[in-house]
């Protein structure tokens, strides 16, 4: 006699059928979404080592997954992009990763790897949580750049408890108070209407995943596994389908409300050239005697432009290689410069750029100068000679990439300190010559980027221990950026300029205007707020007066502004 399948066996077979159905639905019924298409992250709670509630042989993690897979199918059919924290029965994170820890003495959270894994407790109430596994879910959603985060669970309690409840984060941030609450409310209403469940409540409870997902987030408890009637419903494919449709309906209703409206000051144009022009006219409203023009197609010659901008009191405009372009031309006419400086040789900016720039300014082409070396390293050294060693400081960055130079650019501009480009183990001849010629005037050197990008022997050889040298670097471009911000802006009110860490034009221009008012540049992704940057914002909320976003919503999304808002205030845990 064949053994009867267990409840878990039946659920697994149902899951296989649901996956097959999802594939057919995706191929057959893909249609445009009535709401704004979005990137939606679905988190099936628990999994692997953490099965969640278990009643009558039914594991919560399986029910969560089946509803999540149905939700994914429904959202894809409606035209959305969907990512999931897991698609099977497995533990997401078995190792140790940086997680958020409450410090009772400091009354704030810190992000660090603590050497622990699995389920343990550090919370004031003694609750045990699988922090690494939960943080992995948040990290996946944050890095992916999700617009919405929804975690799917099923409840446990007494046998009479029934119905649906949905939660949002308990902190009084605008993001949670306005957007996460709206999302949770709509998801709750969607499930109740579609699945016919009893509506228990929508409440502010600070569960880990909805707290540390950067974006607006909600956690829905569809029904109670501990209630036999609810459990029977959860074992029904048609009920799970209705619940999934309800979750999708709630998400779409949220998206249809156009939630991610801009909230910070923004300097932008329809492209990089127009953004640079807008920045120039914003920071130099009364015009400028000199204008700097750099390539908008290549970044090397512009790496050292920010301190030159401060030295010449000149905005930085961007142009294509073969023409000045309408945005830069209009800005030049409005600024009314008497001189124009081109950065880079004729391959970067042709003679046509010089001619058209002079015409826009109504000046002779003889008033257009060019600072150009045979390569990026010599151009930076020539810019350094133009600036001179007056500040006593010099900044070293690797010339093979741009993010570290962007991080340093605002401080370099504010102090008129030259930015010198080096290769990891090679000191260019012109750079060495500048250091030798100004040896007596230099007191401090800053190396932006670790030994992996600038070798210590190189700097020791270049400086010959004549000046104090300080290294500023982190694990990636965002961590290095934060090291720079913390070092040069340790106290006092700040109004950071936010620039993308994944493309150069807006970020390089930001240095000239941020330095003009001695403000830092904070690097983020288009929809990604790095964890340690969020920690800094959290701790320094009181002195961060505002943000200025550099570039349009394709470079830095409006959602990112709400992510910044979610980081701004943190209350003690309940």
Structure, explained:
This protein is of the alpha/beta class. The protein has three domains: 7-86 and 143-256, Aminopeptidase, CATH 3.40.630; 93-132, no CATH class; 265-567, no CATH class. It has 19 helices and 22 strands. The strands form six sheets. The chain has a six-stranded mixed beta sheet, sandwiched between helices. A four-stranded parallel beta sheet has the order 11-22-20-21. Mean pLDDT is 91; it is low at 1-34.
User: Tell me, what's the shape?
Assistant: elongated
- Number of helical segments with 4 or more residues: 19
Count of DSSP E strands?
22
Distance between the termini: 55 Å
Provide the spatial order of strands within the biggest beta sheet.
4-1-7-10-8-9
Question: Could you say which structural class the secondary elements and strand pairing correspond to?
Answer: alpha/beta
- Global Rg: 28 Å
Please supply descriptive tags for the structure shown above.
about 575 residues, Aminopeptidase, 3 domains, 6-stranded mixed beta sheet, 4-stranded parallel beta sheet, 19 helices, about 20% strand, elongated
In short:
Helix content is 41%, strand content 18%.
List the helices and strands and how they pair.
Layout: H1 7-28, E1 39-44, E2 54-55, E3 58-59, H2 60-77, E4 81-84, E5 99-103, E6 108-112, H3 131-144, E7 148-155, E8 164-168, H4 174-195, E9 199-204, H5 208-212, E10 217-224, H6 228-234, H7 237-256, E11 265-267, H8 272-283, E12 290-295, H9 305-312, E13 316-319, H10 326-335, E14 339-343, H11 351-361, E15 368-371, H12 376-387, E16 393-398, H13 403-415, E17 419-422, H14 429-437, E18 444-448, H15 456-463, E19 468-472, H16 477-488, E20 497-500, H17 505-516, E21 521-524, H18 531-539, E22 548-550, H19 558-567
């Amino acid at each position: 006699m064949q053994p009867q399948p267990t409840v878990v066996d039946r659920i697994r077979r149902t899951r296989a059928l649901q996956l097959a159905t999802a594939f057919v639905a995706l191929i057959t019924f893909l249609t445009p979404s009535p709401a704004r298409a979005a990137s939606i992250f679905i988190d099936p709670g628990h999994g692997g080592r953490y099965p969640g509630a278990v009643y009558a042989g039914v594991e919560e993690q399986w029910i969560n997954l089946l509803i999540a897979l149905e939700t994914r199918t429904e959202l894809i059919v409606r035209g959305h992009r969907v990512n999931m924290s897991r698609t099977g029965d497995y533990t997401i994170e078995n190792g140790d990763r940086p997680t958020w820890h409450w410090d009772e003495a400091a009354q704030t959270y810190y992000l660090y790897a603590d050497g622990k894994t699995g389920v343990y407790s550090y919370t004031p109430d003694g609750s045990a949580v699988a922090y690494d596994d939960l943080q992995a879910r948040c990290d996946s959603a944050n890095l992916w750049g999700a617009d919405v985060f929804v975690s799917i669970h099923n409840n446990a309690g007494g046998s009479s408890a029934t119905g649906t409840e949905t939660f949002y984060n308990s902190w009084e941030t605008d993001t949670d108070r306005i957007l996460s609450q709206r999302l949770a409310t709509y998801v709750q209403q969607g499930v109740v209407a579609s699945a016919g469940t009893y509506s228990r409540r929508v409440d502010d409870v600070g569960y880990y995943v909805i707290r540390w997902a950067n974006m607006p987030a909600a956690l829905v408890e569809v029904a109670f596994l501990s209630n036999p009637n609810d459990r029977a419903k959860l074992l029904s494919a048609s009920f799970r389908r209705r619940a999934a449709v309800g979750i999708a309906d709630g998400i779409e209703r949220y998206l249809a409300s156009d939630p991610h409206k801009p909230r910070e000051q923004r300097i932008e144009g329809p492209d990089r050239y127009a953004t640079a022009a807008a920045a120039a006219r914003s920071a130099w409203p009364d015009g400028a005697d000199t204008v700097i023009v750099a390539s908008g197609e290549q970044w090397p010659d512009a790496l050292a432009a920010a301190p030159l901008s401060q030295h010449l009191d000149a905005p930085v405009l961007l142009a294509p290689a073969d023409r000045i372009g309408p945005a830069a031309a209009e800005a030049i006419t409005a600024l009314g410069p008497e001189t124009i400086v081109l950065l880079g040789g004729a391959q970067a900016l042709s003679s046509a750029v010089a001619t058209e720039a002079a015409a826009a300014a109504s000046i002779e082409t003889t008033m257009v100068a060019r600072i150009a070396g045979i390569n990026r390293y010599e151009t930076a050294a020539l810019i350094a000679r133009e600036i001179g060693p007056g500040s006593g400081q010099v900044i070293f960055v690797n010339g093979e990439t741009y993010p570290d130079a962007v991080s340093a650019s605002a401080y370099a501009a504010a102090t008129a300190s030259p930015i010198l480009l080096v290769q990891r183990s090679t000191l260019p001849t012109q750079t060495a010559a500048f250091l030798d010629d100004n040896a007596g005037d230099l007191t401090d050197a800053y190396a932006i980027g670790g030994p992996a990008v600038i070798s210590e022997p190189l700097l020791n050889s270049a400086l010959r221990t004549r000046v104090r040298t300080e290294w500023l670097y982190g694990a990636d471009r965002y961590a290095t950026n934060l090291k720079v911000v913390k070092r040069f802006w340790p106290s006092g009110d700040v109004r950071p300029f936010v620039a993308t860490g994944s493309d150069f034009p807006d970020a390089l221009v930001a240095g000239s205007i941020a330095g003009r008012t001695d403000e830092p540049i904070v690097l983020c992704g288009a929809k990604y707020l790095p964890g340690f940057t969020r920690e800094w914002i959290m701790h320094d909320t009181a002195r961060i007066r505002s943000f200025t976003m550099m570039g349009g919503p394709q470079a830095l999304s409006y959602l990112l502004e709400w992510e910044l808002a979610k980081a701004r205030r943190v209350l003690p845990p309940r």
